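Hello Y.,

Per our agreement to keep a running log of every chain we model this quarter, I'm adding this entry. I've kept the format consistent with earlier entries: sequence first, then predicted structure.
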Amino acid sequence: INETYSAKAGYSLYSQTFVASVNRSLGDYYGTGSRGTFGVSGAWSWRPPGADWGVTASFGESRFLGPTWGSNNGYRVNVGLFHPISDRLTMSLQYGYSSFTGTIGEEGPVAGVILVAAGQSFHAVQQSVRLSLGWGWASESRNGNTRRASASNP
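Predicted structure for the entry above:
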């Protein structure tokens, strides 16, 4: 069985946007011997009225579930600035931090997936800086003003 259940919500208030989601899968999508995954994430974006820049922040947590993976957590945090270059093009500079910590269960991992023996703990950290260009489109809002929609910025 490979099923996924999720809920998402978003809200815009003046110059800020908030988004949150939660998901739960049943099954071994990644072929790692897990019984499923659980994840939660959220994001916030703010662009002051009249400003030619904005701020974004996001977070997330992921977990593999099941005896093979024992106890584990994965976290990620991103913060950044964005600057609309045109109606359709936005430049963004972001810093990201992620951490995955856990203990392999007594049944051990699927061969070749991770190089840690059963019962041992592991910890991995990744940091990044990203400069990107995002293309979006403009749409009409309910009050007739043009609003920016983008794949990279809420």
